[in-house]
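Standup notes
- DV: blocked on the single-chain target, sequence here:
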Amino acid sequence: MEIVICSTPEEAGEVAAARVAQVVKEAGPRAVLGVATGSSPLALYEGLTRRVEEGTLDLSEASAFALDEYVGLPAGDPNSYAATIDKTVTVPLKMNPANVHVPDGAAEDLKQACEDYEAAIKAAGGVDVQILGIGSNGHIGFNEPSSSLASRTRIKTLNERTREDNARYFASIDDVPRHCLTQGLGTIMDARAVVLVAQGEGKADAVAALAEGPVSTMCPGSILQMHRTVTVVVDEAAASKLKLREYYDVTYEHKPEWQEFDA
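- DV (later): unblocked, structure below
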C-alpha cells in the first residue's frame, strides 16, 4: 500500500486524478473504471474532467461501473447514485452513457440484479482502476463493518452511522434508504489497481485503521492491505492519526515521479 500525504484536499484530488489517468492510459481506450460517489472523489473527478477538456485524456470509449446504489428510491430520484454518477462522472468526463453502469436498486429480483452486475463486470474484462472513498466507520462501497472479506455484489443493510453520514443529502434521515446494492469486498479486490482518496479529520480514524490496523471485518477497508496495487491519497487532516506518519509524509511537491503520471 502506497500512502501519499498532501497539503490540501485539492492537492489530494489532483494527485489521485493523475494516478487514475496513468492507469487508464496504460489500459488503453477501452479502459474500465470503477467509480464511487460521495464527497471524497469529487476533486479527483474534477482533475479528470480538466484532462478531458484539455484533450490529454479520452474516456469516450471507456466503461465505468459504480460501486453501489440505494434500494427503493423512485426512478429519477436526484439522490440515487445513478443520478449522481451521471452528474459527476458521465457528463463531465464525456463518457458514453451506454457504457456507464450502476446496480439496479429498483429491480424486482434484487438477488438476480446483483448476479447480473457481477457478470457485466466480468464481461467487460474486469475493472482496471477502482476509485474509492472511505466511510467514517471504515466502509468501502457500502460494505459495512462485519462484511465478509470475500463478499460479492449483494444486498446490504445500511447501519445507522452511515445513514446519519448520508442524511445531509436528504430532507431528513427518515428519507435515507435502509438498504442498498453494493459491490462486495471480493469484487473490489479483483480490480487491477485501486486509488482511494480521503480528506478531513472526520476520516482520520478510518484511514489509520485502513493502513495500520489489522485486516479485519470491523474495518472493511483494511482488506486493501492485501491488494497488489493500491494507492491511498490523503490530506494532512485525514493523515493526522497515522502512527507511522513520518514514513508516509511524501507530498506531491516532493515526489517528482507523481508528476510523470500524465506523461
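- Follow-up: The CA atoms of residues 20 and 138 lie 22 Å apart.
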